[in-house]
Amino acid sequence: QVQLVESGGGLVEAGGSLRLSCAASGSIFRFLPMGWYRQAPGKQRELVASISSGGITVYADSVKGRFTISRDNAKNTMYLQMNSLKPEDTAVYYCHVPAPRVYWGQGTQVTVSS
User: Which partner for 25 in 3, 42, 53, 74 could form a disulfide, CB atoms 3.0-4.6 Å apart?
Assistant: First the structure.
């Protein structure tokens, strides 16, 4: 069983930065592929970025060059550094584990004002 707890969301002006954290329970964290998803009001949940157990990263085109996903296996924590934020980045951001079982965090709200 893996529990995921996000933190770091909040309200920021356009052009600002936030860093999201996802703390995971369990001793198998370093073996898990992980990712960040987001869901804006009235829209489908979408992948923002993912990171493999070996540190290979993938980004949505909309965040490339602005967001950075990383992980600290010693702390069982994954991060999402978000820079140059835009109003369209406003969403609830979710931590996600796709395998070997699917897990989701409870989400953290990010609001970017124009």
Answer: 3
| Main-chain dihedrals φ then ψ at residue 36, nearest 5 degrees | -115, 130
For residue 101, the one-letter residue type is R
The CA distance from 45 to 89, in Å, is 12
Q: Is 4 left (phi over 0), alpha (psi -120 to 50) or beta?
A: beta
Torsion on CA atoms 91, 12, 112, 11, rounded to nearest 10: 50
pLDDT tens-digit map of 44-93: 999 999 999 999 999 999 999 999 999 999 999 999 999 999 999 999 99
Rounded to whole angstroms, how far apart are CA atoms 29 and 4?
A: 10
